[in-house]
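Box 3.1. Reading complex inputs
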Amino acid sequence: MIESVTPMLGLVEAPLVTDALGRFFQPDTLARILIEGLGKASIYFIIAIGLTLVFGLMGILNFAHGAFAMVGAYLGGVLMVVALSSGSGTVTRIALFIVVAAVIFALLTAVGAALEISLVRPIYDRTPMYQILLTFGVGLILEELARIITSSQGIQPEPTWSAAQATIPGVLSAPSDIILTLFGARIRGFYLFAIVAGAALAVAVWLFLTRTLYGLYIRAGSEDSEMVEALGVDVRKAFTVVFGLGIGLAAVGGVFLMWDPTQGPSVMLNLDVLLYAFVVVVIGGLGSFKGTLVAAVIVGIADSFTTWLFNTGIVDFSGLPEVTIFLLLVIALIVRPQGLYGIEEVGGH
Amino acid sequence: MTGLPALDIGIGVVDPGAFFNAFLPAMPFMILMLFLALFAMSFDFISGYTGYLSFGHAAFYGIGAYVIVLAANGLIPGVPSGTPFMLTMLLGAFLAVGVALAIGAVSFRLTGVYFAMITLGFAQVLYELIRNWSYVGSNPMEGPTLEGTASIGVPYVDSLSVALGRLSGDSFENVLGMGIDISATLTSYYAIGLIVLVCYFAMQRIIHSPFGRVMIAIRENEERAEAVGYNVFWYKMGAFAMSAFFAAIAGALYAGYRGSASPDSTFYFLVTADALIVTIIGGIGTLAGPFFGSVFFEWLEDILSSQQGGLAPYLRETLPEGLLSVEVANITFLDLINTVVDGRAPLYLGIVFVLFVLFVPNGLLGSVRDRLGGTVSKRLPAHLERYRR
């Protein structure tokens, strides 16, 4: 068994490695890995931040997170396709995208709050496992409903819904694909867009956490939710608001993935998003905003670096990015079980 | 079931044969039920009895399955392709034990959600490795299949030419001169069922041994178990390794029956999720519960399957034409059946699962036990006694 592992990983002889190192330290390669990595980091951050907010305050690992991202991607697709049926320019498309993301955020936040009131609230007095199981069941139902609806609308046989993916303006994708040349590196416009959007969202969430009352509840609740309750805060109401926001943020993540050249709206998004969000959140420390941000950057850069390694043929193992990401999770948990910025014994249930 | 007379129930004629075909599970689903039941029991063995949610349990299932197919193809060094099934099954199981000890050594430093996440992480790493490893087959994404003359059978029973798997095509005609024919599928069913039963009793024995008591003590209060003087780490490792052993046997049976193993049906996260679902429906922390959960799961899969004998074909054939073509908002009743019944088991399973989590948290068997006030075998005689007098 052992001997056969080496050809699988496709590690190559020394001259090629030095050659690879040489290529790696070119400014264009570095710039490309950095920009793409930050773009991916932004997307990872957007899909993970809702999960960490919910866990931080409520101690619930929301297994329906990915399903709501998928719902966001499909709803975003519907809105974009309908709005763009007449065809329009780049600026209109980007403006519409922001409007659509905002609409879906508001809509799904309401849905999430309703879900918390109707299903999650009755089982707070049980062990946290049942809240995990409940959200997991909700995710299953949403995935299957999506499958039924997409197949009855005739968009299921395609792995992703290409009509929705095609609403992306040419500057961000298209065959020209590349708009910016930085140190000779040619970078996909979508990643720049993601960096701007991710940074804006990170600032918005940070302002929410530090400047609003609910942000205060969340920060305090992450430390010690019993004490917060004892101080007279209506934690139940805070739970509803935060759970709603978490779902809304998941849906916004889905809207972004709709334009992601490697994703697009698909039923598969459910588990993909869920697993990646888990990785980011656990590496960063469950419930920590700073941790999620740092972990997203680490995972994003690792992803873009390993994708580069594979695409340049230095390592011919196509599963490399995924393996690296899950190995990061395992290593992070071995070295620092509570995550980079996590509090030991988080989630005071 | 075709010999039964048709019944006239007033609104239409019911053919009992078609009715039973639609509502009773077909043999392939009974076999799937056995694999799933054993895998879910092994999952419950660690998750339900020690309280450590093993979220990457599919890894052990996958190891069992892959070892069988790779050994049959002669791809495992030192194991020729003709090795008896039982030996390769045990090989896979012990390999899984080794992997479980390695994973457990680092994972059992963590608890709760973190333990679930690290086991999930390990399983996903294995999943990504195996589905990109060209050694296992020409298309590793699809997984390996049995090649050419390689075949899988049950040893000792092999000499009676009973083989495991419908691919082998063995069958008995006129068994013991009683005029009963046993097909290859039915033979597999009994062979697999026997192994599952033996594994169930083995796990049951462990649970009721002093070792099993310590497992339950760890679930109830780990600090206290440690304070009493048990080295809880090694008990957890032992329980994890045993549960991996049985999970690998379930995987081996699956691969032996199917003659192939794919990464998505063995190593993937969703395979663990299936075990989790049936464990919750059946009753977590009751060893037989996952079995009843699996019966329910596969029964639902079967009646809602799109293959012949499901509920959808039955409705399509039985319901009067007039009702089928009733149209509401451009959707006929037939379309509705095709979209919301045909092959839609996961939807209803999800709904049932959520209802169970909300209203029946102890699952089927757990609730029965709560009602009886003890295990069924202990309490049932007394309850029956009341009716006998």
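In summary: The two ends of chain A are 45 Å apart (CA to CA).
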